[in-house]
Amino acid sequence: MSVVKKFVIYGPVDSLKRLNKAVIEGTSPQYTFVSDRNSSLCYVDVCVYEEHQKLLNSSISVTLVMEYNGKEVNVEIISTGGRMGFRGSIPSDEQSIFDSVTDFVIDFSRRLGLTMQEMAPKSIEAEQ
Q: Is 125 among the domain residues?
């Protein structure tokens, strides 16, 4: 099962620069790549989160890519793994790692007063 969410976040430059660092500190990913911020105005941060569900014997991997280009932050959240159907049912009281990372990005952006626009996923037919 694969889920992709894309956002473009607009706002003041100072707030946009704080977003990447705050998301990394607030969500504590297992793996992080932070590009060099001193040499250029554009940088990319990549975070990888993993969650193992013992009852279902499956794991979910979430990759978060945040790209700052000087005037906006492009956020892409990709979830892979897990199970679907009867055996892959997740109890409703548990929040998945994908939902918690997505909610953190949305909530933090709103707290800073940033404008967030969700991009519709491209269909496979449109790309060909």
A: no
Token pair of 73 as six digits = 């932050």
Domain that holds residue 23: 2-119
Which residues does residue 47 pair with via DSSP β-bridges, in sequence order?
32, 64
- Residue 59: inside a domain: yes
Sheet holding 72-81, edge to edge: 31-34, 43-53, 58-68, 72-81, 2-10, 115-119
DSSP 3-state of 6: strand
- Helix, strand, coil content of the chain in percent (nearest 5): 25, 40, 35
- CATH number of the domain where residue 36 is located: 3.30.70.600
Q: What is the CA radius of gyration of the chain?
A: 16
- For 15-56, the pLDDT digits (tens) are 888 888 899 999 989 999 988 766 668 889 999 999 887 777
Q: Is 64 helix (H, G, I), strand (E, B) or coil?
A: strand
pLDDT tens column, 48-89:
999 887 777 778 899 999 999 888 999 999 999 876 555 555
In a domain, 83, yes or no: yes
